[in-house]
Design a protein that fits this description.
α10 (228-238) crosses α12 (263-275). The protein has 294 residues and is an alpha/beta fold. It is elongated. The protein has a 5-stranded parallel β-sheet, with helices on both faces. A two-stranded antiparallel sheet has the order 1-2. It is built from 12 helices and 7 strands. It has helices at residues 30-57, 60-70, 76-86, 99-118, 122-129, 146-159, 175-192, 206-212, 216-219, 228-238, 240-247, 263-275, and strands spanning 2-3, 7-8, 135-139, 168-172, 202-205, 252-256, 279-284.
């Protein structure tokens, strides 16, 4: 029953469940107002609790930014946005005991990955969706989004093919390009809910990759850095076990700016693709070949 429009009496003599209160009802009673306000406060407290849980498992380097943004949140909607934008910075294993955050992470990744794929052109989609074990060359002109397609190809391999990011190798010809690719991977992967994956991809210059696999004594020889790729190529071509050990670590090998390729670089890519357990993609613009002497 109801008394004076502000109090409801509920009998305890029945075990039947209570009918839910219609919060969208046109009737605007004090009970209705109180119920709606209670739901809002409950939602706010739930989001605050999840935000604090997420903070405790957030990587240390992300915590200051996270807490600054947390204190800018006023409504539950603000906290919801914070959670969606940062839950991907935490490894899935850490979230295994929290089904609410696990479910949120899954929703964020699915929605944002689909939205980003929808922004691609038909040709870009074909490249990103190609089977992981295919090897192909992409020749595209300036302003065609070559680097973005390369990064989205990585994202597709992780999101759809479930490939371990550590099994993806991205090679470039100079450090400036490597820094740019790493930065763009961090930004895009964070937006997609894969922030915790960004640093796990192997993104390197050919020289750095070669030096990582040189014997310590070779590194200190005269002109070791200048000859690193040549020496590395010779070692891989002459020692199949060495080549297989390195190549088998990867399921995808991607090369940016292929037009800068020379014989040694080509030798590295060829051997890696021969022994990797997936495929590869080289992308560039042959009209921009400024290293024709190679």
């Amino acid at each position: 029953g109801e008394l004076n429009g502000w109090m409801s009496l509920v009998t305890l003599n029945t075990r039947a469940p209570l009918a839910p209160l219609a919060t969208d009802s046109a009737e605007d009673t004090p009970v209705q107002q109180g119920y709606v306000e209670m739901l809002k406060k409950f939602d706010l407290q739930l989001h605050r609790a999840q935000a604090m849980v997420l903070f405790t498992v957030m990587p240390v380097e992300n915590r200051k930014e996270y807490i600054d943004r947390y204190f800018q949140c006023v409504e539950a909607e603000d906290l919801d946005g914070l959670l969606k934008n940062t839950v991907g910075d935490v490894d899935e294993e850490v979230l295994e005991s929290n089904p609410i955050l696990q479910d949120l992470l899954s929703q964020v990744r699915q929605k944002r990955f689909s939205e980003e794929m929808d922004r691609l052109s038909e040709n870009q989609l074909k490249i990103c969706k190609a089977s992981f074990d295919h090897t192909f060359l992409v020749n595209a002109g300036p302003g065609s989004g070559k680097t973005h397609v390369l990064i989205m190809r990585c994202a597709h391999l992780i999101h759809m093919r479930k490939i371990d990011p550590a099994a993806i190798l991205v090679l470039a010809f100079n450090r400036a390009v490597v820094y740019e690719i790493r930065d763009r991977i961090r930004k895009l992967f964070r937006a997609l809910g894969y922030g915790s994956y960004a640093n796990r991809l192997d993104v390197s210059t050919f020289h750095s990759f070669a030096l990582r696999h040189q014997q310590a004594t070779d590194i200190y020889q005269e002109d070791a850095i200048g000859q690193a790729v040549h020496t590395f190529t010779e070692n891989m071509e002459s020692d199949e076990e060495f080549a297989r050990t390195i190549g088998s670590r990867y399921k995808a090998v991607l090369v940016d700016e292929f037009q800068d390729m020379n014989e040694d670089f080509y030798g590295v890519v060829k051997v890696l693709l021969t022994h990797c357990s997936g495929g590869g993609m080289v992308i560039g613009d042959d009209d921009q070949d400024i290293l024709t002497w190679n």
